[in-house]
Amino acid sequence: MANQHVVTVIQARTASSRLPGKVLRPLCGKPLLARLVERVKMATLVGIVVVATTTDADDDPIEALCHEEGYFCFRGHPTDLLDRHYRVGWQFDADIVVKIPSDCPLIDPRLIDRVLAAFLDAPERYDYLSNLHPATYPNGNDVEVMTMSALETAWIEAARTMEREHTTPYFWENPDRFRLGNVTWETGLDYSMSHRWTIDYEADYHFIYNVYAALYPQNPHFSLNDILQLLACQPHLAAINQHLAGVNWYRHHLDELKSVSAAMTREEPRPKTAVSPPSLTRQGGSVAQ
Known about the structure:
- The structure is a single chain.
- By secondary structure, the protein is α/β, with parallel strands linked by helices.
- It is 31% helix and 13% strand.
- It has 10 helices and 9 strands.
- The protein has a 7-stranded mixed beta sheet, with helices on both faces.
- β4, α2 and β5 (72-76) form a beta-alpha-beta unit.
- The radius of gyration is 18 Å and the shape is globular.
- The termini are far apart.
């Protein structure tokens, strides 16, 4: 499969009802999105990496950041993520498209390669492969891989708003139409509902900020295991956003999703007054606004 052209798409926008501009918040002197792209590019099998943002003027800073950092940037539909991913794949002549969300700045590059290797090593076995169905890794290590031909089928046929907005439900909701696969954590553990390493709330940012502050200066290539070791030594860090563990977008579509149960998500807790943890200290660096 060495001749297969892989394109990795990082979907990003500044609009967020809970945490506007989260992808541009600082992490060790650069915007969060830049740190995420940096980690994705540490993987060896990701091919071309493209930041896919929207045509909204509010996302001009994302395009500016991409220009400054030398990233490929595509601007497309604000809410139809399926269309955005398809058009990136088409524009960059992809055979295989990888989907990674911008709210996963702690994603382990080794895990990205593990999922991609499983896909590339069995070219006739999969149309779609992820580590999310069922999820076992800490939340925030999302990797989804699909053939361009399967993506085109979904792009043509998917009609529900939820299918367009979240890009891939049409695959895993139609197992009779697609060859599906899943990569589980080799440890046999399931931390998907107990360890929250994604960003959607203020507390998530505080958690991620502190993890980066503790690990990045000594080792920019820090791994999933490095994070677990840090949390074992400093359990107060895990407590920063523990009340949000298990909260994900599934909760809004349980009446629509056949392959997702209520046990795979939790309701959003009632808002609390945000208080910065004592360990959070501002670092240098500027963020595009």
